[in-house]
Known about the structure:
Elements: H1 2-21, E1 23-25, E2 29-32, E3 37-43, E4 46-51, E5 55-60, E6 65-71, E7 75-76, E8 82-83, E9 87-93, E10 96-102, E11 108-114, E12 117-122, E13 130-135, E14 140-145, E15 149-154, E16 159-165, E17 171-176, E18 182-187, E19 192-196, E20 202-206, E21 214-220, E22 223-228, E23 232-237, E24 243-247, E25 255-257, E26 263-267, E27 274-278, E28 284-288, E29 295-300, E30 305-310, E31 314-319
Parallel strand pairs: 1-28
Antiparallel strand pairs: 2-31, 3-4, 4-5, 5-6, 7-8, 9-10, 10-11, 11-12, 13-14, 14-15, 15-16, 17-18, 18-19, 19-20, 21-22, 22-23, 23-24, 25-26, 26-27, 27-28, 29-30, 30-31
Amino acid sequence: MNFLKTLTITVLTIIFSNFLNAKDINPSFTYIASGGVNDLVLKKDKLYAATSASSIDIFDINTKTKIQSIKIKKIKDFMGDVIDSKIYSVDVKDNSLLILSQGNKGGRNIDIYKDEKFENIIPDTKRLFIAKAKYLDDSRIIYALLSNQIFIYNLKTKKIQNEIQVSHSKFSDFVLTEDKSKVIVADESGNLKMFSTNDLKLLQKYEKQNVDNVFQVDTKNSMIITAGQDRRSAIFSLEKTVNYYKQFEFLIYSVGLSPSAELAGVASNEQNDVTIFNTKTKSHLHTLKQNPALLSNILFINENEVLVSCDQEKINYYKLK
C-alpha cells in the first residue's frame, strides 16, 4: 500500500511539474472573422475561415489582412425566420472552394464556389445531415453524414461512387492523410477507423486509448491525434508502432499536429487554453492563453507558428519561440 501511495504521488508530481514548466504564451496577433469559426484551412499563404455568419473569410497570413469575404445566402429556420447560415466546413482546390453549409429548415448544402459563381452539388432539399465535406481530387469529394455514413461523390458523373456505413455510432470527425489516399474516421465509440479513399476498404483500426466520444482527429507525417470527451488525447502512428494517451483536466474539443508531428496542440482546460507538448518525450512545452470561447480548430502553420479559432470571431496567432 505504501509503495502504491508513493507511486501515485510520484506520477502526480511528474504531471504537475510538466504543466508547471510549460511556458505561457499570449497571442501576438488576432484575426477578426465575421462570426464564430467552425473550420480553418491554410492554402498558399491564405487562411480560409468558415464562420457561422454566412461568410467564408479569407486572410493573407503574410500581411495579416482580410482580403475577401465570400457570402452565402441567409436561410429560413423551422419557424420561417431568416437567419445566418452556419458554414460547417470549407476546402480549397486550385481556384475553387468546397462549401458545406446549413440550408433551409435544417437541411445541408454542398456548393462549389469558382469564378465568383456558386454551383450547387447537393441541395438542402435532399434532407441529408452532412457533417463534413472535403476535396479528394479534381473530380471527387468525400463527405460524411451524422449517421456515420461516408460517401465518395464524383463531380463529373454527378453520382455517388462509393459509400460505407462506418458503424452505428454517431459520426464526429474525419481527416484525410496528406496524400489523400486514406481517411481516418472518429465517432462516438472512441475508436478510429482508417479507410482507403479509392474504394473505402477498411485498412486499420485504432482502439483502446479513448473510451468515449472522439470530438476531433488530426493527422500529420504518419501520426494521429485525437480529442476525447474522456479528457484523453490519444497519439497513434499509422502503423500502430506508437500507441498512448495523455490525460487532461477538461473535455478536449480540439487538437492539432505540427507538420513534423513532433508537436501537438490540445484544448486542455475550462479556460480554453491550448497545451503544446512534444509527442516523442510527452513533455509539456507551452500553454497558449487568451482564447475567449470553446475551441474549434488548432492549426499549425509550421513548427513555430500556431492558429487557434473558437466559437467567437477571434482567431489567435501565436509564436512558440
